[in-house]
Amino acid sequence: MGEAFAWIAIAGVPVLIGIGIWCLRRCEGKARKYLLWDTLVFFAALALLFGGDIVLGFFGLAWRNLPGAVLWAVLVVSFLTWIILTLRCSVSQMDDIGWVNKGIIIFFGGVVLLMTMWLGLLIFAFGYCREERVLEYQGQPLVEVDMSWLHPTYHYYEYRGPLFQGSELIYREHYQIDRKR
């Protein structure tokens, strides 16, 4: 059942994107304005999160957990609101397509909405909710990231400020360094 749910969501994304583009072109008033702003916020967060990783990589930097988590949360929330706004606009504007087609659109929207919430929270929990602290070891400030799952594992990166850390792993240890900054 879970696999079928995932395939329905995968098939529903292009359908919703097409309907969303149609809504951006055909809807009028506040619905179009909100949908346009939400689309711009989504693509801005997408560019900052993934494009920022690429650009920061050229300089030997990477996002720390907090900026990455905020950008991921903005990305997921804006996509969820985009789905809701698209469904609201499309169902109210498409009077001549019939109730069966409206039901299919709402079904696809609901499945994609649920899968986005599930995957978004899962990626957020395991990708951006790692504990980190800044410490000084042998005169060098480091960012310690707790990568533990079943056994304690800590990765150490160069400290480059509150938003960034070095992209290269300096040291990996199976216990914490007890030098606080």
Strand order of the largest sheet: 2-3-4-6
**Helix and strand composition category:** alpha+beta
Average pLDDT rating: 85
Low-confidence stretches: none
Contiguous helical run count = 4
**Oligomer state of the chains in this structure:** single chain
**How far apart are the termini?**
50 Å
Task: Please state roughly what percent of the residues sit in beta strands, choosing from under 5%, 5-15%, 15-25%, 25-35%, 35-45% or over 45%.
Answer: 5-15%
Supply Rg. 21 Å
Sum up the overall morphology in one term: elongated
Task: Please explain how this structure is put together.
With 181 residues, the protein is α+β, with helices and mostly antiparallel strands. Helix content is 62%, strand content 15%. Strands 2-3-4-6 form a four-stranded antiparallel sheet, with no helix packed on it. The chain has a two-stranded antiparallel ribbon with strand order 1-5. α3 (65-93) runs antiparallel to α4. The radius of gyration is 21 Å and the shape is elongated. The model has no long low-confidence stretch (mean pLDDT 85).
